[in-house]
Amino acid sequence: MSYDRNFNNTLAIWTAFGGRGSIVLPIPTLSWTKKYYNNFGYTQYGSERQINVYDNGNAQIAVYYAKTPYMSYWNKTTKQWTVVSVPWWSHGQPEILYAADGVFIAKIVGLANIIASFDGITWHNAGYCAGAQNAMTCGAYDMDRGSGVVSWWYYKSPVYYSFDSLEERTAWTLVGSDGTSVPIFKYLTRHKGYFVGVVGGDKSIARASTSSPGSWGTTIPEDVNDTRYMFIRSINGVLFVMKFNYTNVGGTYTYYVKLCVMNDNATEITETNLSWVGDLANNNIPNPRNIIWMPDWGKFALLKESSLCVSSDGITWECLHQPGLTTSQYDTFDGAMYIPGDGFYAKASGYVYYAPY
Predict the structure, then answer these.
(1) Is 195 within 8 Å of 149 (Cβ atoms)?
(2) Which residues contact 322 (CB under 8 A, 6 or more apart)?
(3) What is the pLDDT of residues 59-108, one digit of tens each?
(4) Rounded distance, CA 267 to CA 219, Å?
(5) Cα–Cα distance between 283 and 327 in angstroms, integer?
(6) What residues have CB less than 8 Å from 224, skipping those under 6 apart?
(7) Torsion angle defined by CA atoms of residues 162, 165, 169 and 170, in that order, rounded to the nearest 10 degrees
């Protein structure tokens, strides 16, 4: 089934997908093209080409990974990508740590400041992490409770949190300076009153209440199978995580990767029907960062190598081949979004795939 814009309405989508939550093919086949930094309004800085896309639920941005004082956001009025001045990025490359719940949490690479925005246009110096060492790795924010956390890749400055306004520059509070009571995190998300994260080392998962982000407890401990976790992410009330094991036979590593759903308190894991066996750097892997909630469909969508997959519950997925949605070896999608009335976006290395819809 080739894409027809007449298909893009709630009734047609609901009918084509079976109604009442069941998935009935066909899923639309889309026309995919590549967009580069200049397509989002940027001028090249040095040799930098990396462009990333993020959606916080209310606003969408395209972030050029370069030390230039600009940010491109989707202008809902003009239906165009629009570049605005953001002086913070003249101090270092912007890196988005969290995009959800109507907020973007970002860092300036090489600095200890936390930069925040609600609309992708106005960016605030939301605070700093005194005494932090190494690099800020991830973050999350709870808009309902007004609390945020960021993690640093150093065991004596693992987590900083704040209840202060994101529009004010205040010192975030360090917890875990003893080096043992609080872990460092590789990935963080916010889910139904909890901050949940994959602990550094990728072998366990821990959580804290968003009302007391200084107190963390392990919910999924290390196991005898050396199970690893990556890319934890809460999307429309469902907590996704990728897990994998591997074998090493004569120096050849084989990875067994599965997309999973966790229960709301992050203590149990359910495997979905999406999996991959092979190299870990492969775009066939079902990465939670590439899952999108589609309100008009009432379903989740996931983009991976040559495929658009759809699910009602996040557990059972059906996929349709997407010609042209391919990457080179070892290149993987690392972030996807859908802009209503515009189309799908999937970030690859040095470009973004785009399909109007």
Answers:
(1) yes
(2) 29, 30, 32, 303, 306, 307, 308, 355
(3) 999 999 999 999 999 999 999 999 999 999 999 999 999 999 999 999 99
(4) 5
(5) 7
(6) none
(7) -40
Q: Pick the closest to residue 240 from 134, 311, 305 (CA basis).
A: 311
- Alpha-helical segments (H) within the chain: 10-16
Phi, psi dihedrals of residue 188, rounded to the nearest 5°: -135, 150
pTM: 0.92
> Within 13 Å, how many C-alpha atoms sit on residue 225's CB side?
9
Bridge partners (DSSP) listed for residue 229: 243
Report how far apart the first and last C-alpha atoms of the chain are (Å, whole number): 14
| Spatial separation of the C-alpha atoms in residues 62 and 37, rounded to whole Å | 8
Confidence of residue 21 (pLDDT cuts 50, 70, 90): very low
Q: Name the β-bridge partners of 198.
A: 187, 205
On the 0-12 / 13-18 / 19+ scale of CB atoms within 10 A, 61 is buried
In whole angstroms, how far apart are CA 193 and each of 108, 190, 210, 213, 230?
27, 7, 5, 10, 21
Facing residues of 346 across strands?
A: 336, 353
Q: Which of 354, 357, 273 is nearest to 313 (CA)?
A: 273
What are the residues whose beta carbons fall under 8 Å from the beta carbon of 341, sequence distance 6 or more?
79
Phi and psi, residue 91, nearest 5°? -90, -15
Query: Which residue matches tokens 């230039």?
Result: 68
Q: Take residue 202 and report the two structure tokens written for it.
A: 């990728």
244-293 per-position pLDDT tens digit: 999 999 999 999 999 999 999 999 999 999 999 999 999 999 999 999 99
Q: Is 154 left (phi over 0), alpha (psi -120 to 50) or beta?
A: beta
Burial of 4 (0-12, 13-18, 19+ CB in 10 A): exposed
As beta bridge partners, residue 258 has: 243, 275
Is residue 104 within 8 A of residue 88, CB to CB? The reply is: no
Q: Using only the alpha carbons of the chain, give its radius of gyration.
A: 20
